[in-house]
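RECORD TYPE: inverse folding
INPUT: C-alpha coordinates
STRUCTURE:
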Protein backbone atom coordinates (compact mmCIF):
# COMPACT_ATOMS: atom_id res chain seq x y z
CA UNK A 1 0.00 0.00 0.00
CA UNK A 2 1.08 3.56 -0.69
CA UNK A 3 1.65 6.16 2.01
CA UNK A 4 -1.66 8.06 1.94
CA UNK A 5 -3.60 4.76 2.15
CA UNK A 6 -1.48 3.41 5.01
CA UNK A 7 -1.84 6.73 6.84
CA UNK A 8 -5.62 6.28 6.87
CA UNK A 9 -5.91 2.51 7.41
CA UNK A 10 -2.84 1.04 9.14
CA UNK A 11 -3.61 -0.17 12.65
CA UNK A 12 -7.29 0.66 12.24
CA UNK A 13 -10.29 -1.49 11.43
CA UNK A 14 -14.02 -1.12 12.15
CA UNK A 15 -14.71 -1.67 15.83
CA UNK A 16 -16.01 -5.20 16.51
CA UNK A 17 -19.26 -4.55 18.37
CA UNK A 18 -20.70 -1.53 16.54
CA UNK A 19 -18.66 -1.27 13.36
CA UNK A 20 -17.56 2.26 14.29
CA UNK A 21 -15.24 3.42 11.50
CA UNK A 22 -13.27 5.73 13.77
CA UNK A 23 -11.08 3.85 16.26
CA UNK A 24 -12.74 4.46 19.66
CA UNK A 25 -11.02 6.35 22.47
CA UNK A 26 -10.63 3.62 25.09
CA UNK A 27 -10.76 5.95 28.06
CA UNK A 28 -10.10 3.35 30.72
CA UNK A 29 -7.35 2.71 33.23
CA UNK A 30 -8.08 -0.98 33.71
CA UNK A 31 -9.88 -3.98 32.14
CA UNK A 32 -12.23 -6.45 33.74
CA UNK A 33 -11.34 -10.15 33.74
CA UNK A 34 -14.22 -12.51 33.00
CA UNK A 35 -12.75 -15.07 35.38
CA UNK A 36 -9.72 -15.01 37.60
CA UNK A 37 -6.66 -15.31 35.38
CA UNK A 38 -8.67 -14.79 32.14
CA UNK A 39 -7.98 -11.37 30.70
CA UNK A 40 -8.71 -10.42 27.10
CA UNK A 41 -5.08 -9.48 26.66
CA UNK A 42 -5.58 -6.08 28.26
CA UNK A 43 -4.65 -5.62 31.90
CA UNK A 44 -3.77 -2.09 32.87
CA UNK A 45 -3.74 1.19 30.96
CA UNK A 46 -0.07 2.03 31.39
CA UNK A 47 0.90 -1.22 29.68
CA UNK A 48 -1.93 -1.70 27.20
CA UNK A 49 -4.49 0.51 25.53
CA UNK A 50 -6.27 -0.28 22.22
CA UNK A 51 -6.27 3.34 21.00
CA UNK A 52 -2.55 3.59 21.69
CA UNK A 53 -1.94 0.24 19.99
CA UNK A 54 -3.72 1.47 16.85
CA UNK A 55 -1.46 4.53 16.75
CA UNK A 56 1.67 2.49 17.43
CA UNK A 57 0.81 0.09 14.59
CA UNK A 58 0.07 3.00 12.28
CA UNK A 59 3.35 4.81 13.02
CA UNK A 60 5.42 1.64 12.67
CA UNK A 61 3.87 1.07 9.21
CA UNK A 62 4.46 4.64 8.04
CA UNK A 63 8.14 4.45 9.03
CA UNK A 64 8.43 0.99 7.37
CA UNK A 65 9.30 -0.46 10.78
CA UNK A 66 8.04 -3.50 12.66
CA UNK A 67 7.47 -2.05 16.13
CA UNK A 68 6.23 1.31 17.39
CA UNK A 69 5.93 2.74 20.91
CA UNK A 70 4.20 5.96 21.87
CA UNK A 71 5.13 8.31 24.68
CA UNK A 72 3.65 11.34 26.38
CA UNK A 73 6.12 13.67 24.63
CA UNK A 74 8.99 13.64 22.16
CA UNK A 75 11.36 14.12 25.10
CA UNK A 76 9.88 11.09 26.89
CA UNK A 77 10.45 9.05 23.69
CA UNK A 78 14.08 10.18 23.45
CA UNK A 79 14.52 9.55 27.17
CA UNK A 80 13.27 5.98 26.64
CA UNK A 81 15.75 5.56 23.80
CA UNK A 82 18.73 6.76 25.85
CA UNK A 83 17.66 4.62 28.83
CA UNK A 84 18.54 1.41 26.92
CA UNK A 85 22.23 2.35 27.36
CA UNK A 86 24.35 1.68 30.42
CA UNK A 87 26.95 3.52 32.52
CA UNK A 88 30.26 3.49 30.66
CA UNK A 89 28.60 3.67 27.21
CA UNK A 90 29.52 6.46 24.82
CA UNK A 91 27.05 8.22 22.53
CA UNK A 92 27.80 10.40 19.52
CA UNK A 93 25.14 13.04 18.97
CA UNK A 94 24.60 15.74 16.33
CA UNK A 95 25.79 19.02 17.83
CA UNK A 96 22.83 20.92 16.42
CA UNK A 97 20.11 18.76 18.01
CA UNK A 98 16.86 20.09 19.42
CA UNK A 99 17.69 22.18 22.52
CA UNK A 100 15.71 19.92 24.85
CA UNK A 101 17.63 16.85 23.66
CA UNK A 102 20.95 18.59 24.34
CA UNK A 103 19.69 19.55 27.80
CA UNK A 104 18.48 15.99 28.57
CA UNK A 105 21.78 14.40 27.50
CA UNK A 106 24.12 17.09 28.85
CA UNK A 107 22.42 17.95 32.15
CA UNK A 108 20.66 14.75 33.21
CA UNK A 109 21.86 11.57 31.45
CA UNK A 110 25.56 12.55 31.63
CA UNK A 111 25.33 12.25 35.43
CA UNK A 112 24.42 8.56 35.00
CA UNK A 113 27.86 8.02 33.52
CA UNK A 114 26.88 7.86 29.88
CA UNK A 115 29.38 9.91 27.89
CA UNK A 116 28.38 12.17 25.00
CA UNK A 117 30.32 13.67 22.11
CA UNK A 118 28.34 16.45 20.43
CA UNK A 119 29.78 16.76 16.94
CA UNK A 120 28.86 17.84 13.44
CA UNK A 121 27.56 14.48 12.16
CA UNK A 122 27.47 15.85 8.58
CA UNK A 123 31.25 15.45 8.71
CA UNK A 124 31.70 11.70 8.18
CA UNK A 125 35.45 11.80 8.84
CA UNK A 126 34.75 13.42 12.19
CA UNK A 127 32.11 10.76 12.95
CA UNK A 128 34.70 8.01 12.29
CA UNK A 129 37.34 9.80 14.37
CA UNK A 130 34.96 10.21 17.33
CA UNK A 131 34.13 6.49 17.57
CA UNK A 132 35.59 4.81 20.66
CA UNK A 133 35.58 1.22 21.87
CA UNK A 134 32.59 2.00 24.09
CA UNK A 135 30.54 3.92 21.49
CA UNK A 136 27.07 2.36 21.37
CA UNK A 137 24.87 4.89 19.60
CA UNK A 138 25.02 7.63 16.99
CA UNK A 139 22.00 9.88 17.41
CA UNK A 140 21.34 12.19 14.50
CA UNK A 141 18.84 14.84 13.71
CA UNK A 142 18.47 15.61 10.03
CA UNK A 143 17.59 18.21 8.96
CA UNK A 144 18.78 19.98 12.09
CA UNK A 145 16.84 22.54 14.02
CA UNK A 146 17.07 25.44 13.26
CA UNK A 147 20.07 25.46 10.87
CA UNK A 148 18.66 22.75 8.56
CA UNK A 149 22.00 21.00 8.18
CA UNK A 150 21.91 17.49 6.72
CA UNK A 151 23.55 14.24 7.78
CA UNK A 152 23.87 11.41 5.27
CA UNK A 153 21.86 8.71 7.10
CA UNK A 154 22.98 5.87 4.81
CA UNK A 155 26.68 6.78 5.09
CA UNK A 156 26.51 7.06 8.90
CA UNK A 157 24.67 3.72 9.08
CA UNK A 158 27.41 2.01 7.05
CA UNK A 159 30.08 3.38 9.42
CA UNK A 160 27.98 2.31 12.41
CA UNK A 161 27.41 -1.27 11.21
CA UNK A 162 31.15 -1.79 10.75
CA UNK A 163 31.69 -0.69 14.34
CA UNK A 164 28.70 -2.49 15.87
CA UNK A 165 27.02 0.80 16.81
CA UNK A 166 23.30 1.61 16.65
CA UNK A 167 21.97 4.60 14.72
CA UNK A 168 18.92 6.58 15.79
CA UNK A 169 17.38 9.37 13.74
CA UNK A 170 15.10 12.12 14.99
CA UNK A 171 12.73 12.33 12.01
CA UNK A 172 10.50 15.07 13.44
CA UNK A 173 11.27 17.67 10.77
CA UNK A 174 10.61 15.47 7.74
CA UNK A 175 7.91 13.07 8.94
CA UNK A 176 7.82 9.63 7.30
CA UNK A 177 6.15 11.21 4.27
CA UNK A 178 9.42 12.81 3.19
CA UNK A 179 12.05 10.60 4.85
CA UNK A 180 12.14 7.02 6.15
CA UNK A 181 15.46 6.52 7.99
CA UNK A 182 14.95 2.77 8.60
CA UNK A 183 15.03 2.28 4.82
CA UNK A 184 18.41 4.02 4.79
CA UNK A 185 19.94 1.70 7.38
CA UNK A 186 19.10 3.41 10.68
CA UNK A 187 18.05 1.15 13.58
CA UNK A 188 15.70 3.48 15.41
CA UNK A 189 13.49 6.44 14.51
CA UNK A 190 12.17 8.90 17.07
CA UNK A 191 9.61 11.65 16.66
CA UNK A 192 8.11 14.48 18.53
CA UNK A 193 4.56 13.70 17.34
CA UNK A 194 3.72 17.16 18.71
CA UNK A 195 4.99 18.55 15.40
CA UNK A 196 4.07 17.34 11.89
CA UNK A 197 2.57 13.98 12.87
CA UNK A 198 -0.15 15.62 14.95
CA UNK A 199 0.17 18.86 13.04
CA UNK A 200 -2.54 20.94 14.71
CA UNK A 201 -0.70 22.43 17.72
CA UNK A 202 -3.02 20.67 20.17
CA UNK A 203 -1.19 17.58 21.46
CA UNK A 204 2.21 16.80 23.02
CA UNK A 205 3.44 13.33 22.09
CA UNK A 206 6.36 11.22 20.95
CA UNK A 207 7.23 7.81 19.55
CA UNK A 208 10.06 5.33 18.98
CA UNK A 209 10.01 3.02 15.95
CA UNK A 210 12.34 0.14 15.13
CA UNK A 211 12.50 -3.18 13.28
CA UNK A 212 15.06 -4.59 15.73
CA UNK A 213 13.36 -7.05 18.08
CA UNK A 214 15.89 -6.66 20.87
CA UNK A 215 15.58 -2.86 20.88
CA UNK A 216 11.80 -3.21 20.63
CA UNK A 217 11.67 -5.40 23.77
CA UNK A 218 13.81 -2.93 25.69
CA UNK A 219 11.74 0.10 24.67
CA UNK A 220 8.52 -1.73 25.52
CA UNK A 221 9.87 -2.62 28.96
CA UNK A 222 10.97 0.99 29.58
CA UNK A 223 7.62 2.31 28.34
CA UNK A 224 5.68 0.29 30.93
CA UNK A 225 8.29 0.63 33.70
CA UNK A 226 8.84 4.39 33.52
CA UNK A 227 5.26 5.02 32.46
CA UNK A 228 5.54 8.14 30.31
CA UNK A 229 2.60 6.95 28.20
CA UNK A 230 0.21 9.16 26.24
CA UNK A 231 -3.46 9.52 27.17
CA UNK A 232 -6.00 7.65 25.00
CA UNK A 233 -7.54 10.92 23.78
CA UNK A 234 -4.13 12.22 22.70
CA UNK A 235 -3.47 8.97 20.81
CA UNK A 236 -6.80 9.35 19.05
CA UNK A 237 -6.07 12.96 18.09
CA UNK A 238 -2.71 11.98 16.58
CA UNK A 239 -4.26 8.97 14.81
CA UNK A 240 -6.91 11.26 13.33
CA UNK A 241 -4.34 13.88 12.32
CA UNK A 242 -2.12 11.37 10.54
CA UNK A 243 -4.97 10.62 8.12
CA UNK A 244 -4.13 13.94 6.40
CA UNK A 245 -0.35 13.82 6.90
CA UNK A 246 0.44 13.24 3.20
CA UNK A 247 -1.68 16.21 2.10
CA UNK A 248 -0.45 18.49 4.86
CA UNK A 249 3.20 17.71 4.09
CA UNK A 250 2.65 18.46 0.38
CA UNK A 251 1.11 21.81 1.29
CA UNK A 252 3.85 22.73 3.83
CA UNK A 253 6.45 21.90 1.19
CA UNK A 254 4.74 23.82 -1.61
CA UNK A 255 4.19 26.92 0.55
CA UNK A 256 7.77 26.88 1.86
CA UNK A 257 9.19 26.69 -1.68
CA UNK A 258 7.02 29.63 -2.78
CA UNK A 259 8.10 31.68 0.25
CA UNK A 260 11.78 30.89 -0.36
CA UNK A 261 11.48 32.30 -3.88
CA UNK A 262 10.47 35.63 -2.28
CA UNK A 263 13.04 35.55 0.54
CA UNK A 264 15.86 34.74 -1.88
CA UNK A 265 15.39 38.04 -3.67
CA UNK A 266 15.18 40.24 -0.56
CA UNK A 267 18.41 42.03 0.36
CA UNK A 268 17.30 42.42 4.01
CA UNK A 269 17.74 38.64 4.38
CA UNK A 270 21.44 38.08 5.10
CA UNK A 271 21.23 34.30 5.02
CA UNK A 272 18.56 31.84 3.99
CA UNK A 273 18.45 28.20 5.12
CA UNK A 274 16.11 25.71 3.42
CA UNK A 275 16.80 22.15 2.21
CA UNK A 276 15.04 22.90 -1.10
CA UNK A 277 17.61 25.47 -2.22
CA UNK A 278 20.00 24.23 -4.90
CA UNK A 279 22.63 26.32 -3.11
CA UNK A 280 22.26 24.18 0.06
CA UNK A 281 25.74 22.68 0.65
CA UNK A 282 24.28 19.18 0.99
CA UNK A 283 21.76 19.36 -1.84
CA UNK A 284 22.99 16.07 -3.34
CA UNK A 285 22.37 14.17 -0.09
CA UNK A 286 19.01 15.90 0.27
CA UNK A 287 17.94 14.63 -3.16
CA UNK A 288 19.17 11.15 -2.26
CA UNK A 289 17.51 10.66 1.12
CA UNK A 290 14.51 13.02 1.20
CA UNK A 291 11.39 12.98 -0.98
CA UNK A 292 10.64 16.63 -0.22
CA UNK A 293 12.05 19.56 1.70
CA UNK A 294 9.48 20.22 4.41
CA UNK A 295 8.08 23.42 5.83
CA UNK A 296 10.90 24.81 7.97
CA UNK A 297 12.86 27.87 6.84
CA UNK A 298 15.46 29.82 8.82
CA UNK A 299 16.59 33.33 7.94
CA UNK A 300 19.26 35.60 9.35
CA UNK A 301 18.19 39.22 9.36
CA UNK A 302 21.49 40.47 10.80
CA UNK A 303 20.72 41.58 14.35
CA UNK A 304 18.47 41.07 17.36
CA UNK A 305 16.79 44.42 16.61
CA UNK A 306 15.83 43.37 13.08
CA UNK A 307 14.67 39.95 14.27
CA UNK A 308 12.48 41.62 16.87
CA UNK A 309 11.00 44.10 14.37
CA UNK A 310 10.31 41.32 11.88
CA UNK A 311 8.64 38.95 14.39
CA UNK A 312 6.52 41.70 15.91
CA UNK A 313 5.33 42.95 12.51
CA UNK A 314 4.02 39.58 11.30
CA UNK A 315 0.23 39.22 11.46
CA UNK A 316 -0.60 35.67 10.33
CA UNK A 317 2.60 34.06 11.65
CA UNK A 318 2.28 33.79 15.42
CA UNK A 319 5.30 34.13 17.70
CA UNK A 320 5.49 30.74 19.36
CA UNK A 321 7.77 27.81 20.08
CA UNK A 322 7.00 24.53 18.31
CA UNK A 323 6.48 23.86 14.63
CA UNK A 324 4.82 21.58 12.13
CA UNK A 325 1.24 22.73 12.66
CA UNK A 326 -1.25 23.84 10.02
CA UNK A 327 -0.85 27.34 11.43
CA UNK A 328 2.29 29.33 10.53
CA UNK A 329 4.59 30.15 13.44
CA UNK A 330 7.70 32.26 13.88
CA UNK A 331 10.33 31.74 16.54
CA UNK A 332 13.56 33.40 17.67
CA UNK A 333 15.78 30.39 18.55
CA UNK A 334 18.43 32.31 20.55
CA UNK A 335 15.88 33.52 23.13
CA UNK A 336 13.25 30.79 22.76
CA UNK A 337 13.88 27.16 21.70
CA UNK A 338 17.67 27.31 22.07
CA UNK A 339 17.98 29.62 25.10
CA UNK A 340 19.33 26.70 27.16
CA UNK A 341 22.23 26.18 24.72
CA UNK A 342 25.30 28.16 25.93
CA UNK A 343 25.95 31.32 23.87
CA UNK A 344 29.40 30.31 22.61
CA UNK A 345 27.95 27.00 21.41
CA UNK A 346 25.05 28.81 19.73
CA UNK A 347 27.47 31.12 17.90
CA UNK A 348 29.45 28.13 16.69
CA UNK A 349 26.29 26.57 15.25
CA UNK A 350 25.17 29.78 13.55
CA UNK A 351 22.24 30.44 15.90
CA UNK A 352 22.91 34.17 15.96
CA UNK A 353 20.75 36.85 17.56
CA UNK A 354 19.53 37.71 14.06
CA UNK A 355 18.31 34.20 13.27
CA UNK A 356 14.56 33.70 12.85
CA UNK A 357 12.90 30.33 12.28
CA UNK A 358 9.69 30.07 10.28
CA UNK A 359 7.34 27.09 10.47
CA UNK A 360 5.34 27.44 7.29
CA UNK A 361 1.72 26.40 7.76
CA UNK A 362 -0.83 25.38 5.17
CA UNK A 363 -2.71 28.68 4.93
CA UNK A 364 -3.03 30.27 1.47
CA UNK A 365 0.49 30.96 0.26
CA UNK A 366 -0.37 34.39 -1.18
CA UNK A 367 -1.50 35.51 2.29
CA UNK A 368 1.69 34.20 3.89
CA UNK A 369 3.86 35.94 1.28
CA UNK A 370 2.02 39.24 1.79
CA UNK A 371 2.48 38.90 5.56
CA UNK A 372 6.24 38.35 5.18
CA UNK A 373 6.67 41.14 2.62
CA UNK A 374 4.85 43.63 4.86
CA UNK A 375 6.89 42.61 7.92
CA UNK A 376 10.17 42.96 6.02
CA UNK A 377 9.27 46.56 5.16
CA UNK A 378 9.57 47.34 8.90
CA UNK A 379 13.30 46.50 8.95
C1 LIG B 1 9.99 19.30 19.68
C2 LIG B 1 11.09 18.40 19.37
C3 LIG B 1 11.49 17.43 20.29
C4 LIG B 1 10.87 17.30 21.65
O1 LIG B 1 9.54 16.88 21.58
P1 LIG B 1 8.38 17.28 22.63
O2 LIG B 1 7.18 16.67 22.04
O3 LIG B 1 8.35 18.77 22.70
O4 LIG B 1 8.77 16.70 23.94
C5 LIG B 1 12.51 16.56 19.91
N1 LIG B 1 13.12 16.67 18.70
C6 LIG B 1 12.76 17.60 17.81
C7 LIG B 1 13.45 17.67 16.50
C8 LIG B 1 11.75 18.50 18.10
O5 LIG B 1 11.40 19.43 17.21
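DESIGNED SEQUENCE:
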Amino acid sequence: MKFATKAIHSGQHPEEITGAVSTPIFQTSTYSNEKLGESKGFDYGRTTNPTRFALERNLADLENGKFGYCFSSGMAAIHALITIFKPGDHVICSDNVYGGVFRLFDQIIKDYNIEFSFINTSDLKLVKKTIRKNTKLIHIETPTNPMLGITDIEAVSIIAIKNNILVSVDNTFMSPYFQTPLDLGADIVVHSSTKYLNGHCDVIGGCVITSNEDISDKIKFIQKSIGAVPAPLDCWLILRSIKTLAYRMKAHNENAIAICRVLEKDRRIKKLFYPGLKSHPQYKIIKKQMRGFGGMISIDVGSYKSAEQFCNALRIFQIAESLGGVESLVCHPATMTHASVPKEFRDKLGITDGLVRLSIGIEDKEDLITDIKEALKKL
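NOTES: The chain has a mean pLDDT of 96.
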